[in-house]
Amino acid sequence: MNPPVVVDTNILFAALVGRQSRLREILLTEAGVRFCCPRFVFTELFKHKERILTATHLSEDELLEALNSLFAHIHFFGRILHSNRPLV
Question: Domain-by-domain residue ranges, the chain?
Fold first, then answer.
């Protein structure tokens, strides 16, 4: 099994904002890769919701749909301070 790939808020932001986003394509279609993300990205993305809406020209409903599609392909984990254990 391949090790998980940790995705941060910047990656998700870029995947949403880019018109022909290769990042979005990878996140949605890459087989055999487990993408992981800390739960706090929900807060970070919400803080920048207006900026994302402006940059993408999406309606709020369309943005929520796009986020839902991305989030369906990501495993979320809680806060980890320091651990030698694997994330998943």
Answer: 5-77
